[in-house]
Structure formats: structure tokens, C-alpha cells
């Protein structure tokens, strides 16, 4: 009898197949949050993919991060993917336009109180969207995808940083490259929550706090987990930002700078675009999948960062060509669960007991993995001798 066959037992509604009783997994559980882009014949679109994760700890895996192996498989199946790599000239013009927009609005609002409805509305709707766009412009530039040269890319990142109000582009570059090279490695990938965050924020109120102040966690956590040695670009980033902020305040008063910093706060808080921070690498629906894409319309405002599996597989493919990458290799991407909505990711993260600070994949760093492997090999050798 195969797993899909059921014995004919009169008057019995029970399932005695190999997977009989699996319906109990879904009792009292939230509905599935992710979707499979390519409809699967055996997928009802509702049932979770596996049992819920233990909320007392992170999901520790011994496997390598998934992107290197998929990259090699795609390169073998579609060697023409290399033609999609390279810089995107349009990026610098978008950065120039958004920086001009933000500085103009900041100056125009200098006569309004920061507590006025107009000021707050502009800071959330326009400023939050624009500065989030600049966050992701810096992310794109970090991969040297705006110019052919490294110097020009770094300089553009410093320029894109100006309306954000606080210097961070130089520090972000190193942390983000480590996130790609060492995804999930404890103590190396600073995108991962710490044990302290797990202990303090693993409840509804804690998750509300985390989602509201995400930008502060991403800004401050790296300093405590893995401090950087400052380089000349760090100092230039700081110098350029201080000069810009001083000129703005000295010429137009403090309110334009308040607008820019408020815009940055809203951009990384309870903002529709900020859902991608949680959507990208939190574990959902009983899966051991650690990277999720989103293919919805908000990508237009966010440099297609929703194509996140595609981006991690090929960081040298610019934002304008990520849809083409997915279209080139649908057999690799259309069967991977993805998020249908960034705003709902925030809502579901807060209210769903099956996802929280704990829902991240972690790995030991390379030295610890090697030591564990040696210990396992030695134990195996000792057992064989006995």
C-alpha cells in the first residue's frame, strides 16, 4: 500500500495511510502565511508545511546556507545567467532624484511644527518611503551595481546617505557583505537577533516593540556583536554627514533635520516597506527555509529587494534584472514558498505565536563547525575501535 492509498474500512473516517493523523498538526494553528508561486497539484494552499518550531531557541542547522549550491546548479543549467550581471546606470539618477526630493521637502517644512499633522504625515508617507528607497539604494550600491568602479560606488553611497541624517553607509557595506558570505553564522552574521533579544522580546508586546524600532536594532546590534575597525571611508561618511547636517541646520533651522531623521525612523518602523526586513529571513510555516522572496508591487519602490532568493543567489545581478533572473530559471524559483504581502508580514509576525524572534536559522561559525565535525569523527572512530 502506498502513502496515498487508504484501506476501505466501512464506517471509518480515519486516515490510516502512512501520513494518517497528520491533520492534527494544524489543530489550533494559524493559517499558512506563505504561498508557492507555481501551483502544486498536491498543495491546498492552506496547510502548514511542517510542525511548529520550538519558540525557546533559534532553529540551529548544520547544513550550509542554500544559495551557493543553488547558484552552482543554475550556472550549470543556465550559463547565460552571467549576461545579467553588471552595473545598472539608471540607479544613480534615481538616487539623485530621491535625494533632491527629500531635501526639498525638508526645507519646505521648516515653517511647520514637527508635531503638526502635515509634518508627521509627510514624514511617514513621503519621507518614510523615500528614505527606505535610499536604504535599499545603498544596499544596491554596496554590491557595486551603480558604477563600474568601486570608488564611484562608495562615493554614491555616501551621497545617498545624506537625507537619512545619520552616517551608516560605510559600516553597512562590510556588515552586509558578511551577511552574504556567512549567512546564518552566529556571531558573524549581524542580521541575526541575539540571545538577549530572544529572551526579552519573545512575546506579543516584545514583537510590537521590535517591529516599531527595527531600525534601531539593525543600527545598534552590529556594534555589540561584531565591531568594525574604522577605515578612511567610515571617516569620510561621518564627515560628509556632519557637514551636510550642519549646513542644513545652520541655514534652515533644526526642523528640516528633524524631518529627515523622522523619515528614517518611519522607514524602519511600522511602514509597509519595512515588512521586507522580517520577510527576508525569518522562518515561517514549519519550514527550514531561511530566505523568502516577495514578488508584489511594492518592489517598484524598493529596488526589487523582494526578489531576495534571487539576490542572494546572484548578488552581482542588479535590481532591474532580478525579474529576468527568475524568468530564466523558473524551475529553481517557482516552487519556493514566498510572501504575498510585506505589510501582512508585520501583522502576522506580531500576532502569530508560531513566528517570533526565535524564528531564524542559525549555524555555528566555521571554526566551531570544524571542531564539531572533528569531535564527531573522533567519537565515531572510538566507537569502531570498541
Model regions low in confidence, pLDDT < 50 over at least 5 residues: 1-12, 15-26
Tell me roughly what share of residues is in helical segments: 40-55%
Question: Using only CA atoms, what is the Rg?
Answer: 23 Å
Count of spatially separate domains? 1
Calculate the mean pLDDT score and round it.
90
Shape: globular
Question: Major sheet, described briefly?
Answer: 2 strands, parallel
The fraction of residues in strands falls at under 5%
Total beta strands: 2
Query: Number of helix segments?
Result: 16
H/E order of the elements?
EHHHHHHHHHHHHHHHEH
Distance between the termini: 41 Å
Pfam family, one: Lipid_DES
Enzyme class: oxidoreductase
EC number: 1.14.19.17
Subcellular location: Membrane
Topology record:
Elements: E1 59-60, H1 66-77, H2 90-108, H3 117-142, H4 150-161, H5 169-181, H6 195-201, H7 204-212, H8 214-225, H9 232-252, H10 255-267, H11 275-279, H12 308-313, H13 322-328, H14 330-333, H15 342-351, E2 361-362, H16 366-385
Parallel strand pairs: 1-2
Helix pairs in contact: 2-3, 2-10, 3-4, 3-10, 4-9, 7-15
